[in-house]
From TrEMBL:
Keywords: Aminoacyl-tRNA synthetase, ATP-binding, Ligase, Nucleotide-binding, Protein biosynthesis
Protein name as catalogued: leucine--tRNA ligase
GO molecular function: aminoacyl-tRNA deacylase activity; ATP binding; leucine-tRNA ligase activity
Superkingdom of source: Eukaryota
Species in which this protein is naturally found: Auxenochlorella protothecoides
């Protein structure tokens, strides 16, 4: 973990169907005449959004119902939109108030990770029209927003967790995840890294024989290697900055997403 502040991009993933407990939000936004509902995914790699295959949230822990694990909430943002994230992240946003319209105004609804699992989303830059919210058990509730977007081509954590769901029908069943939410979503090549190829996370997980999302030590190694080499020598294969080094594309993509209203900056 670094010591300086971490500069995240919060990507606004639009909820396409308000079902279950989320249906209560329908009234909330009709009342103000605007306001889509967004899951806010914290990323350090805004240039990788072309490779999204799904989103991640953490289910709550039945053995520890009083812990923060798997607890989220929906907040009305100052611009009338509704943001889903952890209460902790919402509080941080209030203090930062980087631009007034990004500020969070009021809590509308408490949510558990399970309420979000299986929801269809439309996420900026994703080539799929809809991607689904799937369970990631290693999410830290005290970092970012507790919502993560999944780019298995370039994130070993994402690849390992997606493989768990692909390979284990029982795991899908446990969280009411259907085959259609997982199996059609192939890893998408978006960055070429000399010596690692165009699916760096897949190669590193395979070479290091990562067994699952809980293979902490190997994943830490794969992550460090992927991140360093991706940033130092990776080249974009797709998107607005195809042909440019990752190093340059990162800030350009972040600025574009923010300017278009598809993301907000966030630091902690
Ligand atoms: B990154 P750092 Cl392609 N718990 O985004 C666990 N992981 C979290 C998280 C949380 N609460 N919040 C964010 N993250 C993930 C893309 C990506 C990321 C790629 C490659 C590497 C990578 C797509 N997932 O991160 O500990 C998010 O995943 C490798 C470090 O604050 C976020 O960026 O440094 C990153 O971890 C933030 O991790």
């Amino acid at each position: 973990e670094g010591v300086g502040p971490q500069e995240y991009t919060l990507v606004k993933m639009k909820v396409l169907e308000l079902r279950g407990i989320l249906a209560a939000l329908e009234g909330a936004f009709n009342a103000v005449g605007q306001g889509d509902v967004f899951l806010m995914a914290a990323t350090l790699r805004p240039e990788t959004m072309y490779g999204q295959t799904n989103a991640w949230v953490r289910p709550s822990d039945p053995k520890n119902p009083d812990s923060e694990v798997g607890k989220y909430a929906a907040f009305r943002a100052k611009n009338g939109e509704i943001f889903v994230l952890t209460a902790r992240a919402a509080r941080n946003m209030c203090f930062q108030d980087l631009t007034p319209e990004n500020g969070v105004a009021e809590k509308l609804l408490d949510l558990a990770g399970e309420d979000l699992l299986g929801l269809p989303l439309r996420s900026p830059r994703a080539t799929h029209e809809r991607i689904y919210v799937l369970p990631l058990l290693t999410i830290k509730m005290d970092k970012g927003t507790g919502v993560v977007t999944s780019v298995p081509s370039d994130s070993p954590d994402d690849y390992a967790a997606l493989q768990d769901l692909v390979k284990k029908p029982k795991l899908r069943e446990l969280y009411s995840i259907t085959d259609e939410m997982v199996l059609p979503y192939q890893v998408i090549p978006i960055i070429d890294i000399p010596g690692l190829g165009d699916l760096a996370a897949v190669k590193l997980c395979t070479d290091l024989k990562v067994q699952s999302q809980n293979d902490t030590e190997k994943l830490a190694k794969a992550k460090a290697e992927c991140y360093r080499r991706g940033f130092d020598s990776g080249v974009m294969l797709v998107g607005t900055y195809a042909g440019k080094p990752v190093k340059e594309a990162k800030d350009l993509e972040k600025a574009d997403l923010i300017r278009a209203g598809d993301a907000v900056p966030y630091a902690e």
